[in-house]
Amino acid sequence: MTTANVINIAKVCIPLALKDITNQANGDKRYPRELYIAYNTLNDLYTDNPSSTDVTSLTDYVYTLCGGYYFQAQNLLSLGQSGIIVNPSTGIANLTNIRYQFLPTDVGALVGVGGTIFTINIGSGSVFQDGTFQIVVDNVVLPRNNNNYFSYTVSYAAGVITVTLNQAALATQLYIITGTYLIMQ
User: Fold this and answer.
1) Which of helix, strand or coil describes residue 99?
2) What is the number of alpha carbons within 13 Å of residue 153 lying toward its C-beta?
3) Hey, which bits of 73-174 come out as E strands?
4) How many CA atoms lie within 13 A of 147 on its CB side?
């Protein structure tokens, strides 16, 4: 199995794990987030330097982390054949990544200097994969719902993700926001 295949499979394992949590088949609510962070790290590292020795060990880790979802995801993707994830009731469904990188002073930044609330519109027919959402500020992953630290809360309604920071954005802070959602068509 190539690194590229493991990356694609891990991307599909995330919503599968979220579905199990929703259906109460898997009780570890941290698992999808851990898998997403590992997937995202591997994807970035592989994109930057596919021949790095770290790619091999991280690929093995992500493969192991996928656990029982690995074969289910592989089947959905039909790797080696033509295949896509399909919503049988409506047609096609696509997993889509969110990735924003900005300073609050940038034109078009999601949050401006002094701001604490911003939104991301993913479309009314989309399903937000909550466990995949992550905010990194100045290379530090922000915790969620923790007022003892710089943190954030996130809510989702009608195709809009609303993020509330518990501290105002500073001009020099580099924000990287990532997540995954499912476009239902």
Assistant:
1) strand
2) 6
3) 86-87, 91-102, 117-121, 126-137, 140-141, 152-157, 160-165
4) 0
Contact between 57 and 145 under an 8 Å Cβ cutoff? The reply is: no
| Length of the chain counted residue by residue | 185
Per-residue model confidence as pLDDT tens digits over 12-36: 888 877 777 666 655 667 788 888 8
DSSP letter at 6? H
Nearest Cα neighbor of 116 from 131, 99, 98, 137 is 137
Nearest to 175 by CA among 99, 97, 83, 123: 99
- Listed by start position, the domains of the chain span 3-83, 91-184
* Phi-psi group of 2: left, alpha or beta (phi > 0 → left; psi -120 to 50 → alpha; rest → beta): beta
Report the predicted TM-score, pTM, of the whole model to 2 decimal places.
0.55
Q: pLDDT tens across 70-116, in order?
A: 777 776 665 444 444 444 444 445 667 788 889 999 999 999 999 99
Residue 95 to residue 183: CA distance in whole angstroms: 6
What is the spatial distance between Cα 153 and Cα 148, in angstroms, rounded to a whole number?
A: 13
CATH class of 91-184: mainly beta
The Cα 44–Cα 23 span in angstroms is: 31
Whether the CB-CB separation of 106 and 118 falls below 8 Å is answered with no
